[in-house]
Amino acid sequence: MNNKLKDVTMLSFVIHAMIGIRLLSLPRDVVKYASNDAWISVIIVYISASLTGYGFYWIGLKYPGLNFSQINEKVLGKLFGKVMMIAIAIYTISTIGLGLRVFADSINLFLLESTPSILIISIMLIACVYCLRKDIGIMSIILDILLPLLIISMIILVLLPVGKMEPKNILPVFYGGIKPVIKGFLQIVDPVLPCGIVGYVLPHFAEPKKTKKWVFIGISISALVYFLIVLMCIMVFGSDEINYLIFPTLSLTKSIQLRATIFERAESFFMAAWIPTTFTTIILYYFASTLNLKALLNTKKDAMITYAQIPLFFIIAFMPENIVEVFKYLNANAVLAQILNLIYIPLFVLAVFLKTRRRTK
Amino acid sequence: MKTNKYFIVIILAVFSLSLTGCWDYKEIEKRGYVLGIAIDKASAVEDKVMNDIKLDNKNVGKMPVEKGKIKYAYTIQIPIIARAQAKPTGQGGGPSGQERTWNLTFMGNSFFEVVREFSTRLDYAPFFEHLQAIVISEDVAKMGIVEPLDLLFRDPEIRRRTRVFITPQNAFEFLEVSPKIDDYSAMYLASLPLNAYKTSRMAHKTDLGEVVASLHIKRDFALPMVVCNKEEIKSAGAALFKEGKMVGWLGEIETAYAKWITDVALGGEVVIDTPNRPNEQLTLEIKNVKTDIKPIIKGEEITMSIKTKAQLNIAEQMGEAFLTIFNEEFIKEAERIAEEQITKEMADNIDFVRREYGVDVFEFGTALKRYEPDTWYKVRDEWHDIFPVVKTDIKVEIEIKQVGLIK
After folding, report:
1. Integer Cα distance of A98 and A314 in angstroms
2. Is the Cβ pair B371, A171 closer than 8 Å?
């Protein structure tokens, strides 16, 4: 833990954690409930993400040197702390497992038709484990290198279909009132939770206080990417059509066609940028999951915990039999994320607030 | 240190295995790039299939289907790249007179079954990522296009921007066209809609993505009509679809005004009578057209307010009036005549389509949904009954900007 990161690194931690596998199917999940107003849901998500991100940051500052799971135990006591850590462990491990599955499925569907999923998942995990076994400084460098690739590919993805968009598709605005918008928001709460990575990497920063700015910039950029992609999907396809697309973002890349015959297969370019994005998201989840399990089991054996999780990932990744079941499990996972994000985190922040106030008195 | 070295060697070995990507490795020249697909009714292409190979009086050139009746004939076009005229290296043209494409037909029911059956005759496995055009014959379109097209919506190899055309002829004839300049008829066909900024008489919004979106939300739509002979293809007019089935054709000039109404006109021309000289024609070039359709609800009555603003240039005057064009009054009068004529054409067009086909190709339903969602959700189920009696209120504003180089 001698590595003291520079505060700007927080930017890539937050963006890489928040933009990942979910981007592929997210527009459908939110449009299903909020239809044309899905973009308003994303704005609410942005507000929620800022609050959650700030919550993690604030808690981290109150207990310097401890990660989120360790703070849990300190604030809630041994029993409740462990229960919450188990909940977090279920969430992180199932997210990684299902994320790997979605990743392998879409790679199979769009790029490598006959490569077995188990191989795609194994290679991804080997790369992740290799990266994790090095220290956090190396991880942060990898994230920094990949960040421009992520941002540029997202910009291209949002700009290229502009010629195909129909701005009138977002009409009628706010028909049906606030209820569908909130329902849509609940569907996409889970990409917000990854900004909790702040709670796990904060102890590694030289000056944790200075990272505040970067946490917010990171959340803003991620929310903007989600916002633009949802908006673009609605404008290009229309909200009714998105309901029929399993991976709307991939369909968006496939709908890019310029007059010239360059970029006939723009989705290959997007895929090339998207694989490292998945990699970074999984790494960050893996990192948080390992720290969480270490706190849960009160052990310092980093290597053992890291390797012990691998079979779990495989079991979860191959548990769903078909794509319909994958999305069933993903929904269950999203419900867990909703509970953690909307109920547990605010309560926990309140608990920390009360406890520290008592302490200062 | 020793263990570390072995570890690195193992890692390198494992990773280098994965780098070859051996599972999905395919030679680029061994792919059969499908450029065009033609879908006909099976009865239309009886003699196209390999009928000459017989075994015990059974036609083995034909394809047996596992389930269902043989309904469709699917033809695919594969380029013979060695015979291409336009060579990238500029070596000059290949031998002319030879066929530049390889067209294969199979009759079957499931398109996927047929696609796999192609591999029995084609040593280059069909690859659809670069598909340019899909031609569907009128007979198939009238039976419904959802059935034969579902594979194309579902398959990840196919892009949503692939163009779809409807023809009154046999669809496979388009793949046999030997274009004068282009190499492959499918590419020739696919690049015709790019000329939409020159004329409004062709429907150019034709891609598969829009077809599938329209089918999903049960919106009526139009697809371009194409005809061909041995060397040429013509794309003009449109085929109208209601609930996934073709119901009729729209002529060239009707298509142009339908495009004015639906705000997709990119260019073209309007021919009107010359002011004060009704026997002479004045041709105007379309520079810009913008149409807004907004519904107005009064009680139970729905009125569609169609407001069109267009900028035109004078392109040609055939007659003696050419000396008087550079004149404010002449321009004003020409604008008035154009407004009158376009309003009338648009109204006639809407009436004609509603009377003949009852197809909401003007997207009145979409406008209703966008601006008056309450009413839309009330009338959505019986929209096809309400649509023919919806009132319209057309206002056209024409500005003539330029007169050309001479007075």
Report:
1. 9
2. yes
